Amino acid sequence: MTQPKIGVLALQGAFREHKQTLERLNIEVTEVRLPRDLAGLSGLIIPGGESTTMGKLMVDYDLLEPIREFSSSGGAIWGTCAGAILLAKQIEGVPPQFGTQPSLELMDMRVRRNAFGRQVDSFEAPLEVKGLETPFNAVFIRAPIIEWVGEDVDVLSKAEGEIVLARAGRLLTSSFHPELTGDSRLHELFLSMI
Fold first, then answer.
1. Of the candidates 62, 88, 106, 128, which lies 20 to 30 Å from 165 by C-alpha distance?
2. Rounded average pLDDT over 108-127
3. With contact defined as beta carbons under 8 Å apart, do 123 and 116 qualify?
């Protein structure tokens, strides 16, 4: 079987850490900055960062529709932290001065930005994750929560009673930063979706 080629959206945020984790798993990685960079990919990771900035850059680089097409043609997508916000059909907590939050609107869920607090409220927590035998130590930085999910969305983990990891078909979303942990099990889960 041919190894999948994975893209990491490299406009802003924690894309290098995702790339390094995938490379440790011997996966070929492409940094995605333009629509043409999606060619030949099996999966795409949208990293954490600042969702408003990332969304506006996706608009500027004409990436929203090509990523939607990538998803509809069977490409797997994983959004972590800001990436989870960008996958959501509904976004809460956008400051009025930011205007409209650009979004891919691919996953049937409502996400609240920065719901776990500001940068100083960042924390780590061991999470029970459906399908993993031992807890995953998750890093939360200005993390969103998933307030609501549609019927086709499978909740994989909660923290403090809030949904923080969910999957719908070939879409995966996490409120936290698995790329900052040294634990590659969620990257392996994502690869298994391809």
1. 62
2. 79
3. yes
* Tokens 């499978």 found at: 154
The 10 Å CB-count burial string (b at 16+, else e) for 106-125 is bbbbebbbbbbeeeeeeeee
- Report the DSSP pairing between strands 123-127 and 136-140: antiparallel
Global pTM reads 0.93
How many whole angstroms separate alpha carbon 119 and alpha carbon 7? 27
Q: How many CB atoms lie within 10 A of CB 77?
A: 27
Distance from C-alpha of 192 to C-alpha of 194, rounded to nearest angstrom: 5
Q: Give strand pairing partners of 151.
A: none
- The CA-to-CA distance between both ends of the chain, in Å, stands at 12
**26-40, 92-106, 172-186: lowest mean pLDDT where?**
92-106
Q: Which residues of 12-29 are buried (b: 16+ CB within 10 A; e: fewer)?
A: bbbbebbbebbeeeebeb
Ordered structural domains, the chain, with CATH: 5-192 (3.40.50.880)
Neighbours of 34 (CB within 10 A): 11
User: How confident is the model at residue 5, as a pLDDT?
Assistant: 96
Average pLDDT, the chain: 92
- Closest C-alpha to 46, from 183, 177, 142: 177
pLDDT of 113 reads 79
Cβ proximity of 122 and 142 under 8 Å: yes
Tokens of 109: 């869920």
Task: Count other C-beta atoms under 10 Å from residue 92's C-beta.
Answer: 16
